[in-house]
Write a structure and sequence with these properties.
By secondary structure, the protein is of the alpha+beta class. Helices cover 35% and strands 22% of the residues. It has helices at residues 3-29, 36-47, 50-60, 64-87, 93-110, 117-141, 152-181, 190-197, 256-261, 293-300, 324-327, 360-363, and strands at 241-246, 252-255, 265-272, 283-292, 308-313, 318-321, 333-338, 341-342, 352-354, 368-374, 397-402, 408-410, 414-422, 428-435, 442-443, 445-446, 456-463, 467-477, 499-506. It binds ligand MTE and molybdenum atom (MO).
């Protein structure tokens, strides 16, 4: 490769980096400008087949968004490099490609909720021009067009500029991402805080004193996050409203203040993701404060023959479940607070649905803006055409938190196996573990449940033989049904099977 082509490549790379870095910076600074990486990523997700989406969640879990953003960034940088190389001979290529970047970013971004097209147009044009300017400066101006980098001072100038451009691009990108991902905590309304204060704190009877076991209540900032929103919606509660419509006698609309003025209640509910693998961590337990969904539906007057409650988010994500489950004694809720604080932005501020016993993908709409009553056949929610079951009751699961696979213990010494088990709303009746391949199950001690809707902590004591052996766990729910042993994958309606770890017994 000639130095000319390298010069072109570096110019294109730095230009593309600056364009994307400043694109992220504008997004961090202005509410109406979505992140270009996230919005382009979003278009990719929307257009990609279901299996690819699953693969991404499977591979990257809660980091799937970061993985997508990094992938998009790499593509942009590679395109920038080759554009720069080719533009050494065909200069017109650079403005065409940088212009296309701006256009793609613009088109992707205007599809995002709360985006401001004018702001986006200005931001993408500014970013693309900056990138183009850097490319021009590096490939044409910094060095003599005929001598290229032959001359020492030209080389120094080129390298200096390239480094400055690169540092600027990284700095802008990092600051932009920080501003985008370091979400501010929202202020908790005084009434909500008061309501939150009445939640009974877990006592020693609910907690087993085992190092490494999952805390019985998952702190908000450790709660798993799963959603299709590449940019967390930041809703102004002052202009937000929740509409109830469809097969109802009276269409209703609630402002945030309307909801705050209604009677609230609280309950511990364990939320689980259908994508959770056996032993996985897409599950958490929190105290939720909110309004009974039944109260709202009673005011609206649901028609006979209604077969589905559809929850719609500001970002067009949807869920659907039978309306009977909204009014039975599981006490489905419109949650406003999580562990005594207003819902964090990433967990659905200002309001979300929480339906005990149902996986999140059919029920737990964050950034809720509409409740529509329709027929069961009349609508398929977001994940249904993507190959997931239309009904999503949470399967009974148990997980070993400690010890970890690979840990070693002295043969014959007591070893404490501990973890959590959940079957929200059915409750957990029994947890058992077994060591090795024999079918002798040891019953675990279970802490008092906070609620039949919440997970429980359990601990069992075993001893090991010499060598590696499997430890398996299984739970029996409140209806007396034990987890099936046959493993299945999460798709279409949730993983099942026993969680297994492999630990070693070593002689003294
Ligand atoms: N608006 C919106 N709500 C959503 C989702 C989503 O993608 N968008 N994902 C659902 C899924 S699949 C799950 S498992 C839960 C996760 O809730 P959490 O992120 O608060 O843990 O939210 C549900 N609510
Ligand atoms: Mo989920």
């Amino acid at each position: 490769m000639t130095t000319d082509r390298i010069r072109g490549g570096v110019a294109g790379l730095v230009g593309a980096g600056l364009a994307i870095g400043f694109g992220e910076l504008w997004a961090g600074l202005f509410r109406g400008v979505p992140s270009p990486l996230a919005s382009v990523g979003g278009v990719i997700v929307d257009r990609s087949p279901a299996w690819l989406e699953d693969l991404a969640i499977g591979l990257f879990g809660t980091a799937d968004k970061a993985a997508l953003a990094i992938g998009t960034l790499i593509v942009v940088l590679v395109v920038g490099w080759f554009t720069g190389v080719k533009a050494m001979e065909r200069m017109w290529l650079a403005p065409v490609v940088f212009g296309s970047f701006a256009l793609v970013g613009l088109l992707a971004a205007v599809g995002e909720p709360f985006s401001e097209p004018i702001q986006i147009a200005v931001a993408s044009a500014a970013s693309a021009l900056l990138g183009l300017g850097a490319w021009y400066g590096l490939s044409q101006w910094a060095v003599d067009p005929t001598d290229g980098l032959a001359d020492d001072s030209a080389r120094r100038r080129f390298i200096g500029l390239a480094v400055a451009g690169g540092v600027g691009a990284v700095a802008a990108g990092v600051v932009g991402r920080r501003l985008l991902t370091n979400l501010p905590t929202v202020e908790t309304d005084a009434g909500l805080a008061e309501a939150g204060a009445r939640i009974p704190a877990p006592g020693p009877e609910n907690n087993l004193d085992v190092p490494g076991i999952s805390p019985i209540v998952t702190p908000n900032d450790e709660f798993y996050r799963i959603d299709t929103a590449l940019v967390v919606p930041r809703i102004d509660p002052g202009s937000w409203s929740l509409k109830v419509h469809g097969m109802v006698d009276r269409e209703l609309e609630f402002t945030y203040d309307d909801l705050l003025a209604m009677e609230t209640f609280d309950q511990y509910v364990t939320l689980a993701c259908v994508s959770n693998q056996v032993g996985g961590d897409l599950v958490g337990n929190a105290a939720w404060t909110g309004i009974r969904l039944a109260d709202v539906l009673e005011r609206a007057g649901v028609h006979d023959g209604a077969g589905q409650l559809v929850g719609r988010s500001v970002d067009d994500f949807t869920v659907g479940f039978p309306p009977e489950l909204a009014v039975d004694d599981r006490e489905a809720m419109i949650a406003l607070a999580m562990n005594g604080e207003a819902l964090p932005l990433q967990h659905g501020f200002p309001a979300r649905l929480v339906v005990p016993g149902l996986y999140g993908y059919v029920s737990a709409t964050k950034w809720l803006t509409e409740i529509e009553i329709t027929t069961w056949e009349g609508f398929d929610a977001y994940w249904i055409p993507r190959g997931w079951a239309k009904e999503g009751p949470i399967k009974t699961q148990s997980r070993i938190d400690v010890p970890h696979s690979g840990d070693a213990f002295t043969v014959g010494d007591p070893v404490r196996i501990a973890g959590v088990a959940w079957a929200p709303y059915r409750g957990i009746e029994k947890v058992e573990v077994t060591v090795g391949n024999d079918d002798e199950w040891v019953e675990a001690e279970i802490a008092d449940p906070l609620d039949s809707r919440a997970w429980v902590q359990w601990v069992a004591q075993v001893t090991l033989d010499e060598g590696f052996q499997n430890v398996r766990v299984r739970a029996t729910d409140g209806t007396g049904t034990t987890q099936p042993s046959t493993p299945t994958s999460p798709r279409p309606d949730g993983a099942q099977g026993y969680h297994v770890i492999r630990i070693e017994g070593v002689p003294t």
